[in-house]
Amino acid sequence: xxxxxxxxxxxxxxxxxxxxxxxxxxxxxxxxxxxxxxxxxxxxxxxxxxxxxxxxxxxxxxxxxxxxxxxxxxxxxxxxxxxxxxxxxxx
Length: 91
Prior knowledge:
Elements: H1 8-90
């Protein structure tokens, strides 16, 4: 044999090792992509939960503000009615 030459069994063995290493690298890359995808989906779900909580808080505070405004308007109406009654009695 020549010094730089390789026999067929050695060439097939190295080719098989190369295919195996390529396959393992492909599995690792696909696994990393799947992990990243699931992580992004989890982050999006958490952002959505946070947004829903903020919306619920806003809706609750808006409802409280509407109830306070309604109570203030009712009080103003009753005061206006009493002032009108006083003005009618004065006339």
